[in-house]
User: Fold these one by one.
Assistant:
Number 1:
Amino acid sequence: MDLVEKTASFLIIEDPDTSDEEDSDEENIGSSLLLLFSSTNQCILPQDRHRQKNYTGNVALHFRVDEFKTFFRVSRISVECLRGKISEICVEQNVSGILCRHSTGGSPQIPLEDRLLIFLWYMASMDKYAAIADRFGVSESTASYAIRNLITFIHDYLLNIIILWPTPQEQQEMKDMYMELKHFPGVVGMIDGTHISIKKPSIRGIDYYNRKDYYSIVLQAVVREDLRFTNIFAGFPGKVHDARVLRQSPLFQNGQALCGEGHLLGDSAYPNMSWLLTPFRDNGRLTNVQLHYNYTHSSIRSTVERAFGLLKGRFTRLQHINQNEVESIIHTIVTGCILHNICIMNDDNFREFLNDDQYLNNCQVQKILMRIYSTGDQ
């Protein structure tokens, strides 16, 4: 008989000479002791946390092509391309801690392939670190470190080799294409900004509260005809106007040189310049030529909106980033843009998974997400 059972049996022995008041006291003492021993016993014998065993080998490895893309939002070809670029950079630049790390006497580092799937699951979902760790059968600290380590690496090493301004030949091809299709000369890209929803930062949080009634960071991007980003700039609080973001970005200083004899198309939030054309302001007295110009301008510029829709539709994490540090949020946004380009470069189509109407009311979607994920730390 264990200690709890002995104590319980001792306390329920009836004594005919004991008063009712003493019986009540003994019952209270017995109940307290039972709760004490019960809670102590649970502390001594904790339950093991349930985790998926070898999810990569037992489950993910056997996914069909469509199943893999549904869960990870990218194809296996894109994953292999990303792994190859990471491996190449690590070898060429002698970067440690990614392919392998020096032994510290602890558990061995999980393979890069597994860490990539953990990272991609994070980018493709709104799951917390604990849920991702349980799925892949690793500790929460291991999952968190793998995700943050890869985000930092991709931001630092892949940005300038994946997001590239079009060459003069590519610019000429774009000019010819839009001239032939839309009879609009000189187009070498489209520019716009989008808000990435975040939770309220602890420092100067009010600056991040935008005119659409949620907290955000602005992502400015230039897009080419195939939806690839050719220039990105992220980090300004959501309260800042698009025109000011442009003026503070490196693109503003180098725009003329980058565009050459061509120009970008932007909406009316931007200043009209020789290398950035905006629509005529509709004051009710526009000529037919001006109306036609605005219509054609808008139809071409919609490409950048589709790119943002594809980015957020594929990488759900960018619909609301529930991180604490602004720098980490910016790195996550940039990393999503890099992955977006890698997928397009590999003809990794994801548009069949998207509902176009979902992004027509993007403000409402973001407000709902902000309310859902505005509490709790990631």
Note: The chain has 15 helices and five strands.
Number 2:
Amino acid sequence: MGSSILGPKEIEMFEGQALLYRQCCAYIDSMCIKWCVELNIADIIHNHGQPITLHHLVSTLQLPSSRVGALQRFMRYLAHNGLFHIVRIHDENKQEKEAYGLTIASKLLVSSNDYCLSPMVKYATDPVTMGPLNQLKEWIYKEDNLSLFGMAKGMEFWEFLNINPKYLKSFNEAMACDSKMINLALRSCGLVFEGLESIVDVGGGIGTTAKIISEAFPKLKCIVFDLPQVVENLLGSNNLSFVGGDMFKSIPKAHAVLLKNIIHDWDEENCVKILRNCKDAISSNGKRGKVIIIESVINEKQDKHEITDMKLKFDIYMTCNNGAQKTEEELKKIFIEAGFQGYKLFPIAGIVSLVEVYP
């Protein structure tokens, strides 16, 4: 290939154009993954038992012939983005053909996978979730305390969940599948729970994380604490129970309190309120308790670019809902204001960190 006929400044401008176009077309990634989940592409390949040809995929999906070309282009794009492998195989007639295989990412979209993340994809790409982002300009000029979601829907996110059972179900399923990934983290973080007699999972939803902990530590008394309408019909076990209430008023007494993806939901003032109630909950049992926080912590200096990119995307999403992904310095400030004396931060894997906070 010959050298460019453009000068350095022109080349730089076209690189800038490519960056802008890539950013404004990023929604295509979300929609293609949503399409993949809605059509159960990963399940089809998994059930096929080997990489699947375009012909077999078209046949399984029962697509009209006019859409074969579109399917091929979608699969090519998803393979380019790491969702699938494109390999060469021999069909029943011993002819070499192109086929699509699963990658580690698309294996997480297989419904029989214990760590299936399809519910998260469905929730994250729902028009209710994505729609308010179209009103960012209007929201940024507002002087009130409404979140972007609140401005767009006429009510705040948690209120919307309470009166929309279908969306609440989607939200809980998304949080539950995300919690299952914590099982992987617990394998290397078991010492965090060793020696504890009781723990309260604040905002624990339908109890996915607490069930993982209770099974791993059968002598540990686990309490899932969430809004009454979330836990009212949920059944516990020998060492797992469900309690309804409001974390801004009080938290059940325990040796430790778990906050998984809670701190990022709230601004600094509300985080301090929650942590003060956590401190009260662990300070009345006669033992030195602790708060265990599991969520993303922004660390641009140490994280890889793609990890920081994902954390900052989450930060934008949380900012639009009056929350924020915190840096370590921001967490430290909140801990001090809430009356805590020390903490330890452990990066786990991917975008998740674990923080132990001591009174």
Note: The chain has a mean pLDDT of 88.
